[in-house]
Amino acid sequence: MTQRFRVGVQHLRDREYDRAARAFGEVVREDPKDADGWSNYGLALTHLGKAAEAETALSRAVALAPRNGEAWFHLGVARSLRDEWADAASAYRRAVALEPEDVVAWHRLGVALAESGDESAAATAFERALVLSRQMPAGAAGPAPPPRNPNADDHALEVGEREGAREAKSWLDLALSLLALGDEEEAVAAYERAYALDPGRASRSLFRPMLRLLTAVGDEGQNAPIDALQALERPGAPPRPEAVRPPARPEVG
Length: 253
What we know:
By secondary structure, the protein is mainly α. The protein has helices spanning about 5-15, 15-30, 35-45, 50-65, 70-80, 85-100, 105-115, 120-135, 155-165, 170-180, 185-195, 200-205, 205-215, 225-230.
């Protein structure tokens, strides 16, 4: 690992994505066969919203290292940014095949499958993510070694915060991400914002069935999230105060 590569990783950890992209751009120019360099370059570009360039970089990464689960995961994220949901699902399938214990990859696979219209397969993927999250110690979201960002699903969280005021879909994605990470209270808060923006879309989403599944397999007395949804969706019920604010970013790394 070169010094420039180490600097790039630190920029990713610090969420300095412009600097990370410049550093990893130099890494791959110096060594075009550096698969990890291409993967991290694509990750930085994804965070900068340069989805087409990110997809190109990540395609290079998986071509050089087809068994790199991280690269396939990042490729799925880049394709999701472009609404290429079927192709994103294909990338996430490769990621979970290589890293079957990756909760976040299973969750993102579920989102991609749902968006591409395969709700049955999406439910299976979400269920696998929930089962895996239940096997983790309290407060944990799985290992997050470099190069992945310390926030396990930072992409979904940032999309929710950036576009939530205009797009209910972003809040639904955020709600499903938080649900997969085991944070039911914050997940419900994100869902409430989506419901306030677009009640029909929120009601048709997979969120409520997955929340019911989660509470069904959890401990007794965990019905508060379900009760909150029932109160929210009663005719004429005003949104709770928390529903007008973006939920706090959970620390999962």
